Each structure stands twice: as structure tokens, then as C-alpha cells.
Amino acid sequence: MAERSGVHPNRPGPGVNRAELLALPATVDLVTAARALGIGRTTAYQLARSGEMPVKVLRLGTRYRVPSAALLELLGISSSQPAAADTPAASVVRIAS
Length: 97
Description:
This protein is an alpha+beta fold.
């Protein structure tokens, strides 16, 4: 199976879901954070350089890293909240016809 050009196998792609976000390591690169936020790579680097990125950005030498906890907080995702698919079946209301 051929891999898509330009897609890193360890980075979430467009339309990142909750499970993928919760599986992120402690910090992610700027491109991964940009994908999670739905912004492009160039815009993310411009925002990071200007100090206007909506999440904390760590500058480590020439690299940018974003703490996953800050990214999850901005997106309103808590690791303690169950995903919609994780809710117990008892919470589903069934109406008899």
C-alpha cells in the first residue's frame, strides 16, 4: 500500500478526531497542532513567530513545539470526559412503537 506523499504516519491528518488528539505525546510539532486547529502550516508558523498562536508555543532552538495539554484545553477536550461512543447504553432512550 503506497503512502500519501507529504503525510507523516505519526501525525494526525485533517479532521483529527478526539481519540487521535488524546493519543498525542506530551508535545507536538507545529504542523500537527495546526492540523488539529484547522489552520495551515504557513499560517501556524506566522502566528508562532509573531507570538499570536492561540496556544502556548515552545521554541527549542530552531524548532517549535506545542504542549498537547494546552492544545486539548483550547479545543475544549478533557481526557476525563468520555467520548460520545464511550457513553453507557443505559443513557440511550428507546421509544417503543
